[in-house]
C-alpha cells in the first residue's frame, strides 16, 4: 500500500492510499469541524449542512445528485461527529472522475429555503429518535 499526500494552493490537503489491486475507488471529504465547534446560537449547523449537501447545488437539483450517485453505482453517505463532518463515496474505478466532480459540486450546496424547512423537520425527527433510544 502506498500513501500520497499533496497540498493544493488553496490549502486543501489531498491524501491518497494507492492500491493497484483494488477494483474500486473510495473518496471523501473530511471536514475538521463538528458539533464540538458549535455554540448555542448555531447548535446543529454542522449536521444541518451535512444534510443540505444532498439537496442540490447551483449546477444540480437534488434529483440530479441522487440520480447521478445511482448511475455510477455509488455507495455514498455522510455523517457528523463531534470532531468532523465526513462526506464519502465508493465507486468502480471507471467512475472515479464522475464521483470526484459530483462530490466537489456537493460541497457547494444551493441552500434553498424550501429545502431548509424540510430538512429542519427531518433533523428534528432524528433528534427525537435518538432521545427515545
Structure description:
The protein has 133 residues and is an alpha+beta fold. Helix content is 37%, strand content 26%. It contains 4 helices and 5 strands; from the N terminus they run E-E-E-H-H-E-E-H-H. The chain has a 3-stranded antiparallel beta sheet with strand order 3-5-4, covered by helices on one side. The protein has a two-stranded antiparallel sheet with strand order 1-2. Helix 1 packs across helix 4.
**CATH topology tier name:** Cytochrome Bc1 Complex, Chain A, domain 1
How does the helix and strand content classify structurally? alpha+beta
Q: Give me the side-by-side strand order of the main sheet.
A: 3-5-4
CATH class: Alpha Beta
The radius of gyration computed from the alpha-carbon positions, rounded to a whole number of angstroms, is 16 Å
> What is the 3D form?
globular
Total number of distinct structural domains? 1
Helix content: 25-40%
Instruction: Sketch the major β-sheet.
Output: 3 strands, antiparallel
CATH architecture level-2 label: 2-Layer Sandwich
Work out the helix count: 4
Element order: H for helix, E for strand: EEEHHEEHH
| Arithmetic mean pLDDT | 91
| Parts with pLDDT < 50 across at least 5 consecutive residues | none
What portion of residues belong to β-strands?
25-35%
Q: Supply the CATH superfamily name.
A: Metalloenzyme, LuxS/M16 peptidase-like
Q: How far do the termini sit from each other?
A: 40 Å
Number of strands: 5
